[in-house]
Give the backbone structure.
Amino acid sequence: MQNANYIGDNKELVVLSLNHIREGSEEKAKEVMKKLVPLTNREPSCFFYQMHVNVGTEDNNYMVENQRFYMFYEIWRSRADWDKHMEMPYLQEWKGIAGDVCESWQLYIWERVKLPTCPIFRGGDLVDPKDKYTLLALVDVKEDCEDRAWKEMLALVPYTHTEPGCISYEMHINLDMDNMTVNPRKIMFYENWYDYRVWKHEHMKADYLVRWFDMSPQVTHKIELTGWKLVDHELTATGKEK
């Protein structure tokens, strides 16, 4: 597939990998997955590659790690570059054991929606980076509701970017794995917050977001929220290993 031409192949490609680990295989899987991070971040076509472990979304479990569920969030220069990455020896090692250590391994590709706004930090003391909280929202849109759902969700982004606790808030639209055509019925938000509390007790209670969740059953089948913590690696601000 390395030489294939795709619709929109000159655009950055976002990849989401969700890895459900079999009971008893946690240590073996984590050891191999962690090796992927510094090696992949050295690839010149890799803009961003981070590994996360699943945590809760409620006050009583947001720090509890689920060692059987991991997520990789990746940004690549193009689809062709990601295809080359998937043939790297260290990816072959992971793919060679994934069938044994994973209950499931799901890959999705996305186009990041680029908007002229960005998060604004409004002062105060920064919390420990180890407290950073990542939230993934996967939205399934109802048929014939794509246009309204798109406009409603698009409006969330600039509002969220002005929240003091927001580090990043990215909206994505799903792409077909085979031909890169847009699938407007599946949307993803990838969010990073200074800590869990600003997400749960400030962002989630913001008037505009409460309104969205109140009306969302009209245009969506479901919204799946999952919480994540970054798996520690010594990376520079650009995401490249030191």
